[in-house]
Amino acid sequence: MKSVAIIGAGIAGITLARQLQGSAEVSIFEKSRGFGGRMATRQAGNYQFDHGAQFFTARSKQFQKLIDDCVAQNQIQAWLPRIITLDSKKEPFKREWFEPHYIATPKMNSLCKALARGLNVTLDTQISAIDAVEQGWLLKDSLGQQLGHFDWVISTLPAPQANELLPDCFAYKSELGIVDFSPCFSLMLGFEFTHKLNFDAAVVRNSPLSWIASNSGKQGRPPSFSVMAHSDNAWAREQFDCNIDDVRHKMLMALDKIMGDALPLPDHIAIHRWKYAKAESGCEENFLLDDSNRLAACGDWCGGSRVEDAYLSGLKLGEELQILLRPGLSTL
Questions:
Q1: 199-222 burial code (b ≥16 CB/10 A, e <16)
Q2: How far, rounded to the nearest angstrom, does the alpha carbon of residue 1 sit from its chain's CA centroid?
Q3: Which of 9, 124, 183, 211 has its CA at 20 to 30 Å from residue 306's CA atom?
Q4: At 168, phi and psi to the nearest 5?
Q5: Which DSSP string corresponds to 171-194?
Q6: Considering only CA atoms, which of 23, 24, 22 is closest in space to residue 3?
Q7: What residues have CB less than 8 Å from 9, skipping those under 6 apart?
Q8: What distance in Å separates the CA atoms of residue 127 and residue 142, rounded to the nearest whole number?
């Protein structure tokens, strides 16, 4: 049975690994301490923040089936927040969602963790080198330690990171190079006491902010009152290299301007800088597969920037690899 290394334990990587079970010996390597990629959750004492993806939707039968299965196991729930638009130049107004929106429970990254049960996953391990050797591909971590030889190596990282990591022989380097990502800042606020807001989530216009949500108001979250705010992507691009404390101050000022006295001073403040938050110009293919070199790349940037796009990219690459890994059909 062939060996496959998957880099990244987000939804694309986990989906791909599940698809290849029984067809190959699969190992997943993740640089973070937990699962989920941008479906991220941070714990800070009694406070919890989904500081990456806020929700997801389903527009394909494949992803809807996964959601239905996970709803039955209480791993996903429909999210029905009171949602409004806040605009610094207009009065607030109520919004309507015209398709179901979902969240993972009890936190956003718990979905990937649940889907990864039974898989061979190594966390807190950053791949720094993929070297061609007689036995296939040799992976090394950031400390220079050898992690093993593999017949196939697949990146589920954001395209710019995949472009840096995958060897120069990868046939689709140019496709990786044209994918453009916008950054984002996540502002996380915790409060000693619960404060009543007239919304659960808000889309923000004409502001450095683009989104505000009561994280503690989501199903399954700890009761300690917490608020999550995302920056506007274009504003984040302008501010990305600025001092992080200055960015935090500007976001707090923007929050105060848009919400007035609805929130007091928080007891906990944290900020996270996402360099690859949203794919602005993606790849038109579902995945990039170089079967002659036994290398591939996939992710949400293949077809879009949504959680569902990541899932479908991993699923469809897995379907193609299942064929290539059949005895007698592999290029190896």
A1: bbbbebeebbbbbbbbbbbbeebe
A2: 30
A3: 124
A4: -65, -20
A5: TTHHHHHT-EEEEEEEEEEE-SS-
A6: 24
A7: 28, 29, 30, 32, 35, 36, 37, 112, 116, 121, 123
A8: 6
Take residue 105 and report the two structure tokens written for it. 């429970």
The token duo for 135 is 């036995």
Residue 319 identity (one-letter amino acid): E
**In the numeric block, which tokens belong to residue 311?**
């899932």
Helix (H, G, I), strand (E, B) or coil at 157: coil
Dihedral, CA of residue 17, residue 18, residue 23 and residue 24, to nearest 10: 30
SS3 89: coil
Q: Closest Cα to residue 11, out of 33, 37, 29? A: 37
**What DSSP string describes 214-277?**
EGGGSTT--SS-EEEEEE-HHHHHHHTTS-HHHHHHHHHHHHHHHHTTSS---SEEEEEEEEEE
**Domains of the chain, each with CATH number or no CATH:** 1-35+116-179+282-332 (3.50.50.60), 39-111+181-280 (3.90.660.10)
Angstrom CA distances, 154 to 16, 88, 175, 327, stand at: 9, 45, 15, 20
- Give, for all 332 residues of the chain, the pLDDT tens digit: 999 999 999 999 999 999 999 999 999 999 999 999 999 999 999 999 999 999 999 999 999 999 999 999 999 999 999 999 999 888 899 998 999 999 999 999 999 999 999 999 999 999 999 999 999 999 999 999 999 999 999 999 999 999 999 999 999 999 999 999 999 999 999 999 999 999 999 999 999 999 999 999 999 999 999 999 999 999 999 999 999 999 999 999 999 999 988 899 999 999 999 999 999 987 889 999 999 999 999 999 998 899 999 999 999 999 999 999 987 654 44
**3-class DSSP state for residue 69?**
helix
3-state helix, strand, coil in the chain (%, to 5): 25, 35, 40
